Amino acid sequence: MSRSIKKGPFIAKSLYKKIVDQSKASKKQMIKTYSRTSTIIPEMVGLTISVYNGKTWVPVYVTEALVGHKLGEFAPTRMFRGHGGDKKSKR
Amino acid sequence: MARIAGIDLPNKHTEIALTYIYGIGRTTAREICEKTGIDPNVRIKELSTDDVAKLRKIIENDYKVEGRLRSEVALNIKRLMDIGCYRGLRHRKGLPVRGQRTKTNARTRKGKVKTVAKKKK
Questions:
Q1: Domain A7-74 belongs to what topology?
Q2: Which of A32, A59, A81, B47 has the highest Cβ tally under 10 A?
Q3: CB of A89 within 8 A of CB of A66?
């Protein structure tokens, strides 16, 4: 079920503040965030946001196509390295 | 035989026959019958050419079916894959997209079981 329109998209306050600050400052700097559940809003387009995946920060360059998704969708938390025996197909 | 949206409709009740078109289920079929004023229980062969033309017109104008619907679905999936989000990755790997377990089951997405030889002791 989708979120009520009245509430608007969810975005962590701390992250929102950083984004507003970023748009004022002309210099673009990477924003680091733990907030994977925050929705990507149009104001973020053009920014690069580093999203924590539990281990490292994954840089996500926000384009228009990503608006409406959540930040966490672009920073996978699990990495599948293949099963034991198949050495040939190891990446 | 009535041919609508590139599909030959079988000689069944109109309500059922319409569901042979991709994108039309029971609800939509009933809706179409209501809109065109055709009795949903009449068999396809008993429909007049006029009725068939009516059906064809309403389906072509008001509904997205067959090729156009298929391409829309494919495009939606392609969009997910292109932006590299989690759902897109799952589509790429051919694994379930909506968080189902994959330790067992998930055979619809994964295909037939590929048996792996047991470890030697």
A1: 30s Ribosomal Protein S19; Chain A (3.30.860)
A2: B47
A3: no
Instruction: Kindly report the pTM of this predicted structure.
Output: 0.75
Here the ipTM equals 0.73
Residue pLDDT, tens place only, B46-95: 888 888 888 888 888 888 888 889 999 999 999 999 988 899 999 998 99
The count of CB pairs under 8 A between chains A and B is: 22
B89: nearest CB among A63, A69, A76: A76
Q: Where in chain A are the domains?
A: 7-74
Residues of A in CB contact (< 8 Å) with B are 63, 65-66, 69, 72-74, 76, 83-85
C-beta atoms of B116 and A76 within 8 A: no
Q: Measured between CA atoms, how close is A66 to chain B, in angstroms?
A: 7
